[in-house]
Amino acid sequence: MKASKSATLNQRIRSELEGRILSGEWAPGFRIPYEHELMEQYGCSRMTVNKVLTALAESGMIERRRRAGSFVARQSPHLEQVALAIPDIAMQVTAMGHQYAYRLLRRQLRSARDGDDGEQELAGEASLLAMDCLHLADDRPLALEHRLISPTGVPEVLEVDFAVTAPGSWLLQNVSWTRAQHRISAWGADAASARLLDVKAGTACLVIERHTWRGDQAITRVRQIFLGDAWDLVARFAPGNNR
Known about the structure:
Layout: H1 2-22, H2 35-42, H3 46-58, E1 62-65, E2 69-72, H4 89-95, E3 100-110, H5 117-123, E4 128-137, E5 140-149, H6 167-174, E6 179-188, H7 191-197, E7 204-214, E8 217-227
Helix pairs in contact: 1-3, 2-3
Protein backbone atom coordinates (compact mmCIF):
# COMPACT_ATOMS: atom_id res chain seq x y z
CA MET A 1 0.00 0.00 0.00
CA LYS A 2 2.86 2.32 0.91
CA ALA A 3 4.59 1.60 -2.42
CA SER A 4 1.34 2.33 -4.28
CA LYS A 5 0.96 5.71 -2.54
CA SER A 6 4.59 6.54 -3.33
CA ALA A 7 4.10 5.68 -7.02
CA THR A 8 0.95 7.82 -7.14
CA LEU A 9 2.76 10.80 -5.59
CA ASN A 10 5.68 10.29 -7.95
CA GLN A 11 3.33 10.36 -10.95
CA ARG A 12 1.42 13.40 -9.64
CA ILE A 13 4.61 15.41 -9.21
CA ARG A 14 5.87 14.38 -12.64
CA SER A 15 2.52 15.16 -14.31
CA GLU A 16 2.37 18.63 -12.74
CA LEU A 17 5.94 19.48 -13.75
CA GLU A 18 5.38 18.16 -17.28
CA GLY A 19 2.16 20.15 -17.52
CA ARG A 20 3.93 23.41 -16.69
CA ILE A 21 6.59 22.68 -19.30
CA LEU A 22 4.23 21.57 -22.08
CA SER A 23 1.83 24.48 -21.47
CA GLY A 24 4.66 27.00 -21.85
CA GLU A 25 4.32 28.25 -18.25
CA TRP A 26 7.92 27.13 -17.78
CA ALA A 27 9.73 28.18 -20.95
CA PRO A 28 13.00 26.71 -22.28
CA GLY A 29 15.82 27.76 -19.97
CA PHE A 30 13.53 28.21 -16.96
CA ARG A 31 15.08 26.90 -13.73
CA ILE A 32 13.02 24.15 -12.11
CA PRO A 33 12.58 24.63 -8.33
CA TYR A 34 15.46 23.13 -6.37
CA GLU A 35 15.04 19.66 -4.89
CA HIS A 36 14.54 20.98 -1.36
CA GLU A 37 11.84 23.35 -2.63
CA LEU A 38 9.97 20.50 -4.31
CA MET A 39 10.36 18.35 -1.19
CA GLU A 40 8.75 21.08 0.89
CA GLN A 41 6.01 21.77 -1.66
CA TYR A 42 4.94 18.12 -1.99
CA GLY A 43 5.88 16.88 1.47
CA CYS A 44 7.99 14.06 0.07
CA SER A 45 11.50 12.63 0.29
CA ARG A 46 14.55 13.67 -1.69
CA MET A 47 14.54 10.22 -3.30
CA THR A 48 11.05 10.80 -4.72
CA VAL A 49 11.98 14.21 -6.12
CA ASN A 50 15.23 12.89 -7.55
CA LYS A 51 13.40 10.02 -9.27
CA VAL A 52 10.99 12.48 -10.93
CA LEU A 53 13.75 14.83 -12.10
CA THR A 54 15.81 11.91 -13.40
CA ALA A 55 12.83 10.66 -15.45
CA LEU A 56 12.24 14.15 -16.88
CA ALA A 57 15.93 14.44 -17.78
CA GLU A 58 15.91 11.03 -19.47
CA SER A 59 12.86 12.05 -21.50
CA GLY A 60 14.70 15.16 -22.71
CA MET A 61 12.31 17.65 -21.08
CA ILE A 62 14.83 19.09 -18.60
CA GLU A 63 18.60 19.43 -18.26
CA ARG A 64 20.31 18.79 -14.93
CA ARG A 65 23.43 20.86 -14.34
CA ARG A 66 25.80 20.09 -11.49
CA ARG A 67 25.61 22.72 -8.73
CA ALA A 68 23.33 24.91 -10.87
CA GLY A 69 20.08 22.93 -10.70
CA SER A 70 17.61 21.68 -13.31
CA PHE A 71 16.37 23.69 -16.30
CA VAL A 72 13.71 23.26 -18.97
CA ALA A 73 15.55 21.91 -22.02
CA ARG A 74 15.97 23.96 -25.15
CA GLN A 75 14.69 21.52 -27.74
CA SER A 76 16.70 20.79 -30.86
CA PRO A 77 14.84 21.58 -34.11
CA HIS A 78 14.66 17.90 -35.12
CA LEU A 79 12.99 16.65 -31.95
CA GLU A 80 9.36 15.58 -32.28
CA GLN A 81 6.84 16.95 -29.80
CA VAL A 82 3.60 15.37 -28.67
CA ALA A 83 0.50 17.50 -29.09
CA LEU A 84 -1.32 15.61 -26.32
CA ALA A 85 -0.12 14.54 -22.92
CA ILE A 86 -0.22 10.82 -22.21
CA PRO A 87 -2.96 10.40 -19.60
CA ASP A 88 -3.11 8.07 -16.65
CA ILE A 89 -6.71 6.90 -16.98
CA ALA A 90 -6.90 5.76 -13.35
CA MET A 91 -5.75 9.14 -12.05
CA GLN A 92 -8.05 11.09 -14.35
CA VAL A 93 -11.14 9.06 -13.47
CA THR A 94 -10.39 9.41 -9.76
CA ALA A 95 -9.70 13.14 -10.10
CA MET A 96 -13.15 13.60 -11.63
CA GLY A 97 -14.72 12.08 -8.52
CA HIS A 98 -15.51 8.65 -9.92
CA GLN A 99 -14.51 5.19 -8.70
CA TYR A 100 -11.95 3.61 -10.99
CA ALA A 101 -11.64 -0.12 -11.64
CA TYR A 102 -9.61 -2.20 -14.08
CA ARG A 103 -9.78 -5.70 -15.53
CA LEU A 104 -7.11 -7.63 -17.38
CA LEU A 105 -8.96 -9.61 -20.03
CA ARG A 106 -6.01 -11.34 -21.70
CA ARG A 107 -2.22 -11.51 -21.36
CA GLN A 108 -0.06 -13.25 -23.95
CA LEU A 109 3.61 -13.40 -24.86
CA ARG A 110 3.76 -13.87 -28.61
CA SER A 111 5.72 -13.21 -31.79
CA ALA A 112 5.17 -10.17 -33.99
CA ARG A 113 2.74 -10.66 -36.85
CA ASP A 114 4.27 -10.98 -40.31
CA GLY A 115 3.89 -7.80 -42.33
CA ASP A 116 3.13 -5.58 -39.32
CA ASP A 117 6.07 -3.15 -39.22
CA GLY A 118 4.98 -1.65 -35.89
CA GLU A 119 4.95 -5.03 -34.19
CA GLN A 120 8.25 -6.01 -35.81
CA GLU A 121 9.83 -2.81 -34.47
CA LEU A 122 8.59 -3.53 -30.95
CA ALA A 123 9.61 -7.19 -30.93
CA GLY A 124 13.01 -6.91 -32.57
CA GLU A 125 14.51 -10.38 -32.32
CA ALA A 126 12.29 -11.34 -29.37
CA SER A 127 8.59 -11.55 -28.49
CA LEU A 128 5.85 -9.08 -27.61
CA LEU A 129 3.75 -8.82 -24.47
CA ALA A 130 0.15 -8.40 -25.67
CA MET A 131 -2.70 -7.45 -23.34
CA ASP A 132 -6.39 -6.63 -23.58
CA CYS A 133 -7.74 -4.51 -20.72
CA LEU A 134 -11.00 -2.91 -19.66
CA HIS A 135 -11.18 0.39 -17.74
CA LEU A 136 -14.30 1.15 -15.70
CA ALA A 137 -15.75 4.19 -13.94
CA ASP A 138 -18.35 3.61 -11.23
CA ASP A 139 -18.54 -0.05 -12.29
CA ARG A 140 -19.46 0.89 -15.87
CA PRO A 141 -17.14 0.24 -18.86
CA LEU A 142 -15.30 3.37 -19.97
CA ALA A 143 -12.60 2.16 -22.34
CA LEU A 144 -11.24 -0.98 -23.97
CA GLU A 145 -7.47 -1.15 -24.38
CA HIS A 146 -5.33 -3.34 -26.66
CA ARG A 147 -1.67 -2.89 -25.70
CA LEU A 148 1.68 -4.25 -26.88
CA ILE A 149 4.89 -3.78 -24.87
CA SER A 150 8.45 -4.56 -25.90
CA PRO A 151 10.22 -6.83 -23.36
CA THR A 152 13.45 -5.90 -25.16
CA GLY A 153 12.95 -2.23 -24.29
CA VAL A 154 11.38 -2.93 -20.89
CA PRO A 155 12.70 -6.29 -19.59
CA GLU A 156 11.11 -5.87 -16.14
CA VAL A 157 7.64 -5.82 -17.71
CA LEU A 158 7.60 -9.63 -17.66
CA GLU A 159 7.71 -9.62 -13.85
CA VAL A 160 4.78 -7.21 -13.33
CA ASP A 161 1.39 -8.54 -12.22
CA PHE A 162 -0.89 -6.74 -14.65
CA ALA A 163 -3.90 -8.46 -13.15
CA VAL A 164 -3.79 -5.79 -10.43
CA THR A 165 -1.95 -2.92 -12.15
CA ALA A 166 -3.05 -1.26 -15.39
CA PRO A 167 -0.15 -1.36 -17.89
CA GLY A 168 -0.53 2.30 -18.88
CA SER A 169 -0.29 3.47 -15.26
CA TRP A 170 2.70 1.21 -14.62
CA LEU A 171 4.55 2.45 -17.71
CA LEU A 172 3.98 6.12 -16.81
CA GLN A 173 5.29 5.53 -13.30
CA ASN A 174 8.30 3.41 -14.21
CA VAL A 175 9.44 3.93 -17.81
CA SER A 176 10.64 7.20 -19.31
CA TRP A 177 9.95 8.03 -22.95
CA THR A 178 11.29 10.61 -25.39
CA ARG A 179 8.89 10.47 -28.32
CA ALA A 180 5.26 9.58 -28.93
CA GLN A 181 2.91 9.51 -31.90
CA HIS A 182 -0.88 9.82 -31.56
CA ARG A 183 -3.60 8.98 -34.04
CA ILE A 184 -7.20 9.90 -33.16
CA SER A 185 -10.26 8.67 -35.02
CA ALA A 186 -13.99 8.07 -34.70
CA TRP A 187 -15.25 4.51 -34.92
CA GLY A 188 -18.44 2.50 -34.58
CA ALA A 189 -17.91 -0.35 -32.13
CA ASP A 190 -17.87 -3.82 -33.67
CA ALA A 191 -19.83 -6.64 -32.05
CA ALA A 192 -16.96 -7.97 -29.91
CA SER A 193 -15.94 -4.54 -28.61
CA ALA A 194 -19.55 -3.49 -28.05
CA ARG A 195 -20.15 -6.57 -25.91
CA LEU A 196 -17.20 -5.74 -23.65
CA LEU A 197 -18.21 -2.07 -23.43
CA ASP A 198 -21.82 -3.08 -22.73
CA VAL A 199 -23.26 -1.04 -25.61
CA LYS A 200 -24.93 -1.76 -28.93
CA ALA A 201 -22.81 -2.60 -31.96
CA GLY A 202 -22.13 0.54 -33.96
CA THR A 203 -22.09 2.84 -30.91
CA ALA A 204 -19.87 5.89 -31.54
CA CYS A 205 -16.43 5.57 -29.97
CA LEU A 206 -13.26 7.65 -29.85
CA VAL A 207 -10.14 5.67 -30.74
CA ILE A 208 -6.65 6.76 -29.70
CA GLU A 209 -3.70 4.88 -31.15
CA ARG A 210 -0.32 5.70 -29.66
CA HIS A 211 3.23 4.57 -30.28
CA THR A 212 5.92 5.48 -27.74
CA TRP A 213 9.71 5.35 -27.99
CA ARG A 214 12.73 5.94 -25.77
CA GLY A 215 15.42 7.12 -28.13
CA ASP A 216 15.34 4.64 -31.03
CA GLN A 217 13.86 1.86 -28.89
CA ALA A 218 10.14 1.26 -29.36
CA ILE A 219 8.51 0.85 -25.93
CA THR A 220 4.78 0.36 -26.36
CA ARG A 221 1.92 0.52 -28.83
CA VAL A 222 -1.67 0.88 -27.67
CA ARG A 223 -5.17 1.19 -29.13
CA GLN A 224 -7.67 2.63 -26.67
CA ILE A 225 -11.39 2.65 -27.50
CA PHE A 226 -13.37 5.15 -25.42
CA LEU A 227 -17.14 5.47 -25.40
CA GLY A 228 -17.84 8.58 -27.45
CA ASP A 229 -19.81 10.40 -24.76
CA ALA A 230 -17.37 9.66 -21.96
CA TRP A 231 -14.08 11.29 -22.99
CA ASP A 232 -12.94 14.75 -24.09
CA LEU A 233 -9.60 15.69 -25.61
CA VAL A 234 -8.40 19.15 -24.60
CA ALA A 235 -5.11 20.72 -25.68
CA ARG A 236 -3.99 24.01 -24.13
CA PHE A 237 -1.44 26.28 -25.77
CA ALA A 238 0.22 29.47 -24.64
CA PRO A 239 1.05 32.39 -27.02
CA GLY A 240 4.37 31.76 -28.71
CA ASN A 241 4.36 28.11 -27.68
CA ASN A 242 5.23 26.03 -30.73
CA ARG A 243 4.84 22.69 -29.02
